Amino acid sequence: MFIYVNGQIVSREQATISAFDHGYMYGLGLFETFRVDDGHPFLLDDHFQRLQDGLQTLGISWKMERAEILEVINQLLEANHLTSAYVRWNVSAGPHDLGLYTGEYIDPTIIVYIKPLPSVLANAKQAKLLTTKRNTPEGKSRLKSHHYLNNVLAKREIGDDSKVEGIFLTEDGFVAEGVVSNLFWVKDGVVYTPSIETGILNGITRQFILRFLKEKNIPFEIGFYRSIDVKHADEAFITNSIQEVVPLHSFDGFEYTKERVFTKELQKLFHRYRKQLWSRAEL
User: Are 18 and 101 spatial neighbours (Cβ–Cβ below 8 Å)?
Assistant: First the structure.
């Protein structure tokens, strides 16, 4: 595997960072994961707008234009002999003296990882409620940051079964999100999803689906819900930027028996647009 580190394409064995990088020392870093299909990075502009907004919150000074980003991606695709790929773009604070720093970080560390897309995506998954609770964000809203212990503990709870997705509840018992996904369900023609005020990540795929629902005048509601609401659904699915839309065949032991009409339509939507859209605003 070849990756990008601060302007250079290097092998994984050659990749190094400073022992004083505050991304390592204090978790000050953000990342985005996204698909590249036949050379096109799906919703790239949305991912990097979120990244830029988050970095501003952390006081990390960094920006790249789309052309520069594409050059890095294309170099990595070529070096790894890929046309389609899973990409993780990482920006951390960079090296600084030992101790908490309150100023602006002006020398961030940029690492871009790449690997083949999963050859086979799950047809459907089982949703299992976690005993590990969704923690509250470190700031006003959840960033896609290096603070991933809550997710790691949740993943350890459910194990390595790729057909199972753990679902977080908040401390107050509201349904939140999956370990690596956002959650949606459909009941009587209305689409439901938890509010970001439950502490969930406002996923790019989540935002894309909500934009689609609005544009097509499909009724939807965002709010605070209990697990019983999801159990009473006609169909349910989880989303993320790599797997996009994955149906749930069961939720906390309740099996969905109705045809997954809406979920299938969404999967067709992603298949139609994943090689052409730069932003959900183009819908």
Answer: no
Single residue among 97, 115, 133 that ends a domain in this structure: 115
CB atoms within 10 A of CB 156: 12
Using CA atoms, how far apart are residues 65 and 44, in angstroms rounded to an integer? 11
CATH number at 60 reads 3.30.470.10
Average pLDDT for 112-137: 91
pLDDT band at 123 (very low <50, low <70, confident <90, very high): confident
Among residues 91, 115, 139, the one where a domain terminates is 115
Q: Are 152 and 274 in contact (CB under 8 A)?
A: no
Question: How far apart (Å, rounded) are the C-alpha atoms in residues 283 and 279?
Answer: 8
- 223-251 pLDDT tens trace: 999 999 999 999 999 999 999 999 999 99
Dump pLDDT digits (tens) for 201-224: 999 999 999 999 999 999 999 999
Same domain, 102 and 229: no
- The answer to whether 267 and 244 have CB atoms below 8 angstroms apart is yes
Pair (177, 263) in one structural domain: yes
